[in-house]
Amino acid sequence: MKPIVVGNWKANKNFEVFNKIPSNLNNIEVAIALPHIYIPQTVNYSKHHISISGQDCSKFESGPYTGETPSSFLKENHAKYVIIGHSERRRYFYENSSDFTTKINNALAAGLGVIYCIGENSLERESNEYMKVLYDQFFSVVGQGIKIDIAYEPVWAIGSGIIPKKEEISEVIEHIQRWSRSINVSGRILYGGSVSYDNIELLHSINKLKGFLIGGISLKTEFVDICEKYNSLNGQ
């Protein structure tokens, strides 16, 4: 699989940026995680080189679940991926490992690629409990032998402008790869948290890192610059 850059728009939109993403980024995959309401219309005029992702999916399939979007509906509307387990889902919607396990199983059954997020908060990092937290987030959800992308997003780095040291990210990436191998899980390992044009080259140098999950910057033209630079780095 190619390295990937995923732009997570959250509860925002900027189709001007979407339309500026060039079609000649042959060394990487670019995906945009849209608010669900915009997925059908975006697919209709989307450039085929941009993959579409849901930002979340329901843990339920179709039925009497007001406000929910089943993973099968995302697939029917030509989404390729879905993000599951984002820290904002944990924080604001109190979702837990049981919810994420069900969502992942449903999404995989529907034929969606899954981007599962794990990450520690600042207190867990400072108290040196972060690796146990990440271990639990991984093994309580990720099943044996599945294909899934894992995004490491330290909560304290998201939107803060604070980026972990290279060796701190490398340590976690190496553990995720080791954990994945231990249960025969395949897929890419991504990083998210204050990714920018200025640090993309440094992050690219981290061994075994195969992409990025980008939030606020994905709504700005800098996102296009990041994609172009990452494409160039992967062509070297």
Notes on the protein architecture:
The chain is α/β, with parallel strands linked by helices and about 240 residues long. It has a single domain, classed as Alpha-Beta Barrel (TIM Barrel). Helix content is about 40%, strand content about 15%. It has helices at about 15-20, 40-45, 70-75, 85-95, 95-110, 120-125, 130-140, 165-180, 200-205, 220-235; strands spanning about 5-10, 30-35, 50-55, 80-85, 115-120, 150, 190, 210-215. Strands 7-6-5-4-3-2-1-8 form an eight-stranded parallel sheet. α1 links the parallel β1 (about 5-10) and β2 (about 30-35). The radius of gyration is 17 Å and the shape is globular. The mean pLDDT is about 95.
Secondary-structure blueprint:
Layout lengths: L3 E5 L6 H6 L8 E6 L4 H7 L4 E5 L16 H6 L4 E4 L2 H7 L3 H14 L2 E6 L3 H5 L3 H10 L9 E4 L13 H17 L6 E3 L8 H5 L6 E4 L7 H12 L3
Parallel strand pairs: 1-2, 1-8, 2-3, 3-4, 4-5, 5-6, 6-7
Short key terms for the protein model shown above:
236 residues, TIM_sf, TIM Barrel, 8 strands, glycolysis, triose-phosphate isomerase activity, Triosephosphate_isomerase, single chain, eight-stranded parallel sheet
